[in-house]
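Dear colleague,

Following up on yesterday's call, I've attached the two folding results inline so they're easy to grep. Please treat them as preliminary; we haven't cross-checked anything against experimental data yet. The first protein's sequence and structure tokens come first.
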Amino acid sequence: MTEIVTRYRLQGAAWTLAITDYVAVFLLPYVQRRRLSRESVGQLYTRDLTTREVVVEQATLLTRVNAAWGRVSFDVKQAVAEREAMFRQGYHCLGLWHSHPEEIPHPSPRDLALLKNHAAAATTQDYAGIVFAILGTLPLPQGLGIWVHDGEVLHEAKAVFGGS
């Protein structure tokens, strides 16, 4: 049985985002612990967008087109094809994750521009926003930053301790 490792809440939101142990274990190899390691990137999926607790059940790894210690880019066509394949399996894409070579991750200016573009595209497809997760070097929950971009504003989600 999959267990919830941690939950994140947006201020004023009626829902939480839950990270499963399966997803946490999937992300661990992509933590940038070495000085010359390159950033990794992937997507996050859930089966149900309508519950008060949206559970991130799957994470994937996208092929890096260009990657360095402090930046990464991916093939957008591959990401779209993956979303379509996952949708056929009953999954909905919540957004993107990528790694950062810092303990407690924060979006860079490049991240903010990318996220704004993806959020704007998502809102044209009847999504309320896009989840953006950054994997830092500290253990979860401190080492996983979660944000939601609604197409206009980036909102930071905070880890919830002791229940939702």
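Below is the second protein, in the same order (sequence, then structure):
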Amino acid sequence: MSNSQDKYLITGASGFIGSHLVEHLLKQDCSIAAIARKPLEHSDVKCYQGCLTDKNFVTKSIQEFSPNYIIHLAAFKE
């Protein structure tokens, strides 16, 4: 079970599984950030907008948010 001290960084948060995971974790009062190509609709989720293939962007996002957990649900799409 999660607690409010838990910080999750989720890739693919706008997809089917990711969006349901975000909803679940928000109900658990967790801090959530997402790496996404487009903005998310959740005002309670910190969104880092960019591409997962950009190593510097991903590294900076992780360092800035400092998550306890990273959940990778993103899929490659051209």
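For the second protein, one point worth flagging: The chain is about 30% helix and 25% strand.

Best wishes,
A.L.
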